[in-house]
Fold this protein.
Amino acid sequence: MAHDERPADASIFVTRSFLPPQAEYQAWLDKVYASHVLTNLGPVHRELENNLRERFAVPHFRLMANGTLALQLAIRALGVTGKVITTPFSYVATTSAILWEGCEPVFVDIDPRTGCIDAALIEAAITPDTTAILATHVYGIPCDVEAIDTIAKKHGLKVIYDAAHAFDVNYKGRSILQWGDASTLSFHATKLFHTVEGGAVVLHDGEADKRLRLLRSFGHVYDEHFTLGMNAKMSELHAAMGMAVLPHMEHIIAERAALSQRYDRLLEGLGTERPHVAADTTYNYAYYPIFLRDSAEREGMLQALADQGIHARRYFFPSLDTLPYVSATACPRSRDLADRALCLPLYNGLTPADHERICAGVSAFLEQHRKRVPNNVVQP
Ligand SMILES: Cc1ncc(COP(=O)(O)O)c(C=O)c1O
């Protein structure tokens, strides 16, 4: 059997990292070997940084060791302190970065159609201690950036977008990374564009960018120490993977768009809800979430698929206002969505046979489940 052929009943995971042809990665590794520079912002790192800065047309683009440190250092570089308004429907790193930087997360509930923070609820949560808004472009779907911008300007708040899912997402013809005071990205192996482990911070202010560069490299330049810093640098080997993946991005997104549209067709008529993407958005097809009717239906489907070796993912789960180490007002919409959302497998190379297997599993479960539990029956 060729190495990329799969037995018909093999497990299907929610994602599978894209790997560029090995010779292409090797060509970048050859450059690293030739330079003998393995890290400390070497030539491949510089090339990737410049490339991505130009791609997104942003003034400052800095690579980081991962997306979590990107969040932490963005918070610190912008001088954010006190209370940070944030979303409970995100990956835990969005909240933990706020806490790690000694700030207090204040959760504002979400717009259940998109999963993003509900901008209409933000103003009521602002107090004199609030200094920033940290919101996530959930599944790569843009937040209501215009409304957030207006509120932030009115109240003198910084805006940071967790754009971990938003590589190559455009809104009204421009990169979504052009909004806010900062955006952070994750280039983890499971992300659309990846460097195995990695991330980035986009900033629009030169002084903040200067601070960020110091924070990323121990706070010193040669022997002169300026500030408390840390090590958040990306290595040359990681940057090399980024350079090898980058030329494939158009193809990666096109294939995922086709897979998503195929899901839409195969699941049509089953009554599964999909998140709403604003009309002016060029989407990147980072995930394929469906929203089920309730927690019982979602958990049942997760298990039914797992029984057939199909591993979907509850994402995001749990709602971050339930974390045991935060004190938060309950966010019922986020809790409800965290109980109903399920990301189906989506990755480059997902075969038509696997695709059909997943959809048959979803469809068979829903048919049985909805016969057992019709819509108007309230579960005890
Ligand atoms: C929304 C979001 N924020 C932050 C992160 C953290 O990124 P990383 O895993 O690169 O540290 C992730 C990914 O894991 C994420 O999905």
